[in-house]
Amino acid sequence: MTGIVIDLRHFLKSAVARIFGRYAVGSVISAVVSEVTLLTCYGLKLLSPQGASIAAWAVGSVVNYSLSRWWAWGRRGRPKPLRELLPFWLTSVVGLLFSSWATGVADGMAQRMFTTDGPRVVFVGAVFLGTYGLLFFAKFAFFHYFVFADTGSEPAEGAGTGEDEEEAARRRSRSQVPTTTRE
C-alpha cells in the first residue's frame, strides 16, 4: 500500500501531472467560453444548432490552442507549422465535425422531447459539452506525445514548470559553480 502512495506522490509531482493539470484547466476555460458562445448563439436563435456549434468551436479553439501551447506545454516563439499547427487544428476540426453532428442530432431529438425552448437549449448545450468531454483524454495524449512533444529542442528554461525566474536563475548559477566552492 505504501508503494502505491509513494508512486502516486511521485506522479503528482511529475511534469506529466503538472501539464495535464494545466491542460485540464485550459480545457475547462475553453469549454466555458465555447458553451457560453453556443448557448448565446443558439438560445437567442441567432444561429442554427450547427452554426452555433461552429461559432463556439472557433472561439473556444483559439483559447484552447493559446492556453495549451503557452501555459500547459510552455512553448514560446514561432510554432512549427507541420509539427504543431497542422495536427492541432486537424484534431480541432474533428471535434468541430463531431460536435456539429451531435448538436444537430440533439436538436432533432429535443424538438420531439421538449415543448419549450429552455429545456431544448439545455439539452443541446449538454450534448455539445459532452462531445468535447469524450475527446478530452484522447486529445491530451495526442498533444502530449506528438504535437507538443520535445523533439530535441528544449523549451525556454523554466517554461511550463511552475518555476519562477529567481529559482531558475539560482539553479543555473549553482550548476555553473564547482561543487568544491559551494557552501
Structural overview:
With 183 residues, this protein is an all-alpha fold. The protein has one domain (2-149). Helices cover 76% and strands 0% of the residues. It has 6 helices and no strands. The protein has helices at residues 2-12, 15-43, 49-72, 81-113, 117-147, 165-175. The chain is globular and about 55 Å long. Mean pLDDT is 82; it is low at 153-165.
Key words describing this protein structure:
183 residues; mainly alpha; globular; transmembrane helix; membrane; transmembrane; Putative flippase GtrA (Transmembrane translocase of bactoprenol-linked glucose)
Rg: 21 Å
- State the helical fraction: over 70%
User: How many individual helices?
Assistant: 6
Distance between the termini: 39 Å
Strand segment tally: 0
Overall 3D shape: globular
Structural category is mainly alpha
Uncertain residue ranges: 153-165
User: What count of domains describes the coordinates?
Assistant: 1
Describe, in short, the structure shown.
With 183 residues, the chain is mainly alpha-helical.
Topology summary:
Blueprint: H1 2-12, H2 15-43, H3 49-72, H4 81-113, H5 117-147, H6 165-175
Region (Disordered): 153-183
Membrane topology: Multi-pass membrane protein
Transmembrane segments: 20-42, 54-73, 85-109, 121-147
